[in-house]
Design a protein that fits this description.
- The structure holds two protein chains of two kinds.
- Chain A is an all-beta fold.
- In chain A, the strands form two sheets. In chain A, strands 2, 4, 5, 6, 9, 10 and 11 form a seven-stranded mixed β-sheet that branches. A four-stranded antiparallel β-sheet of chain A has the order 1-3-8-7, with no helix packed on it.
- In chain A, strand 4 and strand 5 form a beta hairpin.
- The model of chain B has no long low-confidence stretch (mean pLDDT 94).
- Chain B is an all-beta fold.
- In chain B, strands 2-11-10-5-6 form a five-stranded mixed β-sheet, with no helix packed on it. A four-stranded antiparallel β-sheet of chain B has the order 3-9-8-7, with no helix packed on it. Chain B has a two-stranded antiparallel ribbon with strand order 1-4.
- In chain B, a hairpin with a 6-residue loop joins strand 5 and strand 6.
- The chains are: A mainly beta, B mainly beta.
- The interface between A and B is medium-sized, with 24 and 21 residues.
Chain lengths: 115, 106
């Protein structure tokens, strides 16, 4: 595709439920990143993939958060037992090169609201 | 660990004024440095970057120089326009600053 796409654009769920957020990176980009952004804050790093493997997951806040990228393209961020504090915009980005060296291209984000 | 400190906003300027947004960072090694911009209603996009010490990144009249000795990457523009109103983020590697909101008045 022309850019990074994310689905859904908005997700409203109830506390305790499970959610999945999907990211389609730019074709050919080997690196994929997940961030979350709260209102008035900068993006907070969660995890990045180089190919299929999670190269750095140090930003995942706890074990309720998990992400996969089984074929080295599409990625899914999974959140179990959602809490109100998980409400934020979840951003996905991809880049050609290793994290920190190349420009990241961002998707429009998924706005998650936990009631 | 790595961190970044950005000038707090909002910054309000008149059109054609000079802009500086300060950014300092701590990081292991010498990472590439980026400024990203988020225009109202749009997603994050790269504004400029510098990959090594003393490099100057530039785009759309904005400039920033990679200063290794002061671990800084300040963003400057000589004459801002109303269309520059946006939120600006300094980002060494994967760490983003909190963002600086710029409002330019005609």
């Amino acid at each position: 595709g022309a850019g990074v796409s994310q689905t859904p654009s908005n997700k409203v769920t109830e506390k305790g439920k499970y959610v999945e957020l999907r990211c389609d990176p730019i074709s050919g980009h080997t690196a994929l990143y997940w961030y979350r952004q709260s209102l008035g804050q900068g993006p907070e790093f969660l995890i990045y993939f180089q190919g299929t493997g999670a190269a750095d997951d140090s930003g995942l806040p706890n074990d309720r958060f998990f992400a996969v990228r089984p074929e080295g393209s599409v990625s899914t961020l999974k959140i179990q037992r959602t809490e109100r504090g998980d409400s934020a915009v979840y951003l996905c980005a991809s880049s050609l090169w290793l994290a920190g060296a190349g420009e990241q291209f961002f998707g429009p984000g998924t706005r998650l609201t936990v009631l | 660990g790595n961190s970044v400190t950005q000038m707090e906003g909002p910054v309000t300027l008149s059109e054609e004024a000079f802009l500086t947004i300060n950014c300092t960072y701590t990081a292991t090694g010498y990472p590439s440095l980026f400024w990203y911009v988020q225009y109202p209603g749009e997603g994050l996009q790269l504004l400029l970057k510098a990959t090594k010490a003393d490099d100057k990144g530039s785009n759309k009249g904005f400039e920033a120089t990679y200063r290794k000795e002061t671990t800084s990457f300040h963003l400057e523009k000589g004459s801002v326009q109303v269309s520059d109103s946006a939120v600006y983020f300094c980002a060494p590697k994967l760490i983003f600053g909190q963002g600086t909101t710029l409002q330019v008045k005609p």
